[in-house]
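Section 5: illustrative case.
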């Protein structure tokens, strides 16, 4: 059994998720503005030198393909605004949680859409004893 957790991370020296979000992109999570005081990581207790945000599928989307497509569509629908608001480092991540064996298979439609993003893709797999 395999569970996917797709997300697109956005960051940039002058990226402002607030500028994007104020224009109707309320789907961002983990938003940080340049200058916010970091609570974790190498900048903990210091102002962040960049802005960042994450586009992740909502928990109510259960199908693995549907999760991936939701993230892709949100990014593509707002790509111009995201780029205009300073996003420079954009990566599509798929975290994979599996039990016993990890087999990944993607429909041709999803492979094409991921390719059309024209951004880096990372896949991280980790084994679990059970799913919550």
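Designed sequence:
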């Amino acid at each position: 059994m395999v569970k996917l957790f797709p997300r697109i991370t956005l960051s940039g020296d002058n990226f402002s998720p607030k500028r994007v979000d104020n224009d109707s992109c309320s789907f961002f999570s983990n938003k940080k503005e340049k200058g916010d005081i970091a609570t974790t990581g190498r900048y903990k207790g210091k102002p962040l030198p960049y802005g960042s945000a994450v586009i992740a599928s909502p928990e109510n989307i259960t199908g693995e393909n549907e999760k991936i497509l939701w993230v892709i569509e949100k990014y593509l629908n707002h790509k111009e605004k995201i780029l205009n608001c300073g996003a420079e480092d954009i990566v599509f991540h798929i975290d994979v949680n599996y039990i016993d064996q990890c087999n990944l298979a993607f429909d041709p439609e999803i492979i094409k859409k991921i390719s059309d993003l024209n951004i880096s893709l990372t896949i991280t797999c980790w084994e679990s004893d059970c799913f919550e």
